[in-house]
Amino acid sequence: SSRSLMKRLLTILMAAVMAAFTLAACANPSPNEALSKLLAVAPESEKSALTAEIVRLCGHHKNSEIPKSCDPAAATANIDLPDAGSSGVLQVLADVPQESLPVVVNLYLSYVASEQTTPDLPNVTLDPARSEGDARAAAITAAKAALEAEYAFDYAVGIVEAFGDEQGANAADEVDDRHEAVAEKLREALGDQAPARLPAYTFNQPLPTDSATAQNFLTELTKELDALHVHDAEAATTPAWRLLSLSIAGYLRAK
Fold first, then answer.
1. 3-state secondary structure the chain
2. Residue 64 — pLDDT band, cuts 50, 70, 90?
3. pTM
4. Residue 69 pLDDT grade (very low, low, confident, very high; cuts 50, 70, 90)
């Protein structure tokens, strides 16, 4: 019928209009501003990973050519740039795309290693989640797990001191002091949401039986805990948790 024909024509017309808008929107993609800022102040040794991530997000033509509009320099023209180094990463961290966090975390840790200074642990507050799907819920869950892991580590240090020699016990105390500082910041951030310390903890690693196994026990647990904090920073879902989790990872990496 003429009515059905008209409906089909209108549907085709609307589809064509939507396609035109889509092509227009994609015709001049722009580079991510936060990543472009980091690239602008990065040393040559760090530019390749940032450039690759910017290009990946910005996209390319079907012939694999990168659009001229994806030039990061265009995104940073006439705007304030962050500081160079680890402090600059923290300045733009809240604006980094979620999927780009692993690249930025690696950049930050690289800066920390080269600067040979220990980052400060910031004072932040992790607000309660309004719903289970709230990004804050994921941040609080991760922070609680991190604090529980820190409690377990502190308990493990007591085991190491019981089996280790004097030198090993002193080394364990030094590591434990750093992790206690981390635990304190996590407790402060969580406030009333912080989990309570348990009387005992279990571990995936075999328990030590002498000074040699005590040292190995501590080494493996330290690696596991450091990796947990890096993972938290790579997956952080709120600005406050991004700042705290990345600072913790850098603080421990600088040891």
1. CHHHHHHHHHHHHHHHHHHHHHHHHHHCCCCCHHHHHHHHHCCHHHHHHHHHHHHHHHCCCCCCCCCHHHCHHHHCCCCCCCCCCHHHHHHHHHHCCHHHHHHHHHHHHHHHHHHCCCCCCCCCCCCCCCCCCCHHHHHHHHHHHHHHHHHHHHHHHHHHHHHCCHHHHHHHHHHHHHHHHHHHHHHHHHHHHCCCCCCCCCCCCCCCCCHHHHHHHHHHHHHHHHHHHHHHHHHCCCHHHHHHHHHHHHHHHCC
2. low
3. 0.85
4. confident
